[in-house]
User: Which sequence fits this backbone?
């Protein structure tokens, strides 16, 4: 006796999804299961989980020869989220579950007891299902809140395979099952930090505000204990909140990394802070099976903070040069390529020398040691950093005037509004994102205003990329000051901030 069944699922390459149809043909013969369509190891092992779960739920599976095809067959399939769709297709082949209209996708990992377990990447998988034309999505109970963040889908939660089969029309009355609990979403340590906690260092706070207003990259250099990390952790609080689409993309990247998604979208920009021992894969993404996003991708629409930046391997840091220009990262592996968004602000912090005391009168490092230490930050990378500022330790009697996060974020919001009006009709919303050629063609400045930059370019102390970036910083300064166009003073200040760290 033969039977045929199918079910819908999705596969991911990066954040992009492809609809996958699972076909099952059951026929008489020796009991054997073949899975075809480039299944990965986890998909191959699904046959054992599927048959055990079906038996534990008291359901009937085909007893003869079974062929399971995952189409498109040329696309590699990886992950355990195919389990539920494969099990339902098998039950349809045996007549337990009736066929449907092909508009219901199924995601979930099966336990041997038949319960459904959540899988990493539920949110991007749900988005991919909606883009593939699915109207309904069946997921484990622990993943229902995460999948419900996609408004185009009707989400059906099931604690077990039997409950999922009943939702799809099977004549079953499954017993109550304790669902697998969802992992708690992590707390964001930078959510409640106030800029008013920072004492002194007005120049560094001004630079932080300029960076936030224009989405500019920033390097802070100073001795240990000067407050570089303290400043960095307060930058997300003065950035504009994420849009709904940006928040959904950020949550999708976190979900794909295996992090539990929150019950509601977070509008606070992300803050990624990898350790200086981070490898290239952990920073830009990769993996031998499913390609996962790295810290640079997870920092999209937010901050990538590299503390003790010269301690990172130079080759790892230089991998950031391309995403800093393009706003995306493409990871190539033998199984294919995955592209992730990477429109982040780079925030670097460094000591001025190996001992950290250069400029305080207590440095014991030779000039050659200092040059070698800072030489780990390559010239091409630093050329992409718009702002460089010195952060000094607070001394008694220093100006103690403070600026709160609320005040700074209000100024940043007004500056962003001015930039958005100027860039209306383009795909950019901040001056730090505008390409140099577009800026020179549509927002030209008078030669007399650009004269300091032209002189620096002639002397070889400034590259053409550096000139464009200084002009963008000057536009941001004008926006913060409420002025229509940058003046020569703004240009001079932008040039000084670009060369603010003595060698």
Assistant:
């Amino acid at each position: 006796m033969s039977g045929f069944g199918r079910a819908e699922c999705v596969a991911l390459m990066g954040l992009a999804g492809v609809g996958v149809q699972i076909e099952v043909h059951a026929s008489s013969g020796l009991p054997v299961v073949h899975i075809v369509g480039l299944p990965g190891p986890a998909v191959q092992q699904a046959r054992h989980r599927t048959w055990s779960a079906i038996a534990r739920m008291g359901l009937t599976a085909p007893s003869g020869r079974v062929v399971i095809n995952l189409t498109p067959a040329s696309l590699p399939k990886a992950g355990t989220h195919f389990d539920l769709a494969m099990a339902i297709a098998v039950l349809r082949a045996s007549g337990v579950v009736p066929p449907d209209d092909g508009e219901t996708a199924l995601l979930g990992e099966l336990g041997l007891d038949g319960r459904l377990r959540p899988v990493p990447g539920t949110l991007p998988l749900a988005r991919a299902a909606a883009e593939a034309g699915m109207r309904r999505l069946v997921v484990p109970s622990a993943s229902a809140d995460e999948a419900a963040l996609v408004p185009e889908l009707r989400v059906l939660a099931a604690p077990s395979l039997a409950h999922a089969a009943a939702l799809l029309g099977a004549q079953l009355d499954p017993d109550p099952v304790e669902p697998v609990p969802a992992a708690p979403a992590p707390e964001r340590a930078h959510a409640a930090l106030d800029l008013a906690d920072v004492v002194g260092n007005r120049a560094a706070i001004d630079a932080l505000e300029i960076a936030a207003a224009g989405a500019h990259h920033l390097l802070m250099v100073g001795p240990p204990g000067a407050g570089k990390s303290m400043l960095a952790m307060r930058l997300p609080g003065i950035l504009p909140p994420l849009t709904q689409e940006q928040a959904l993309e950020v949550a999708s990247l976190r979900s794909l990394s295996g992090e539990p998604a929150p019950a509601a979208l977070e509008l606070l920009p992300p803050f990624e802070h990898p350790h200086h021992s981070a490898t290239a894969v952990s920073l830009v993404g990769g993996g031998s099976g499913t390609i996962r996003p790295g810290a640079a991708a997870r920092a999209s629409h937010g901050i990538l903070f590299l503390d003790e930046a010269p301690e990172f391997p130079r080759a790892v840091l230089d991998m950031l040069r391309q995403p800093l220009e393009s706003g995306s990262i493409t990871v190539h592996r033998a199984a294919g390529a995955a592209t992730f968004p990477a429109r982040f602000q780079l925030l670097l912090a460094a000591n001025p020398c190996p001992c950290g005391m250069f400029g305080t009168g207590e440095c014991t490092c030779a000039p050659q040691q200092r040059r070698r230490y800072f030489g780990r930050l390559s010239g091409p990378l630093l050329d992409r950093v718009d702002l460089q500022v010195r952060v000094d330790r607070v001394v008694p009697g220093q100006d103690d005037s403070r600026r709160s996060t609320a005040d700074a974020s209000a100024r940043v919001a007004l500056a962003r509004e001015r930039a958005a009006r100027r860039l209306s009709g383009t795909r950019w919303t901040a001056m730090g994102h505008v390409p140099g050629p577009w800026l020179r063609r549509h927002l030209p400045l008078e030669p007399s205003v650009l004269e300091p930059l032209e002189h620096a370019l002639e002397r070889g102390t400034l590259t053409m990329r550096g000139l464009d970036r200084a002009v963008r910083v000057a536009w941001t300064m004008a926006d913060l000051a409420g002025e229509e166009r940058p003046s020569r003073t703004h240009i001079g200040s932008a040039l000084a901030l670009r060369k603010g760290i003595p060698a």
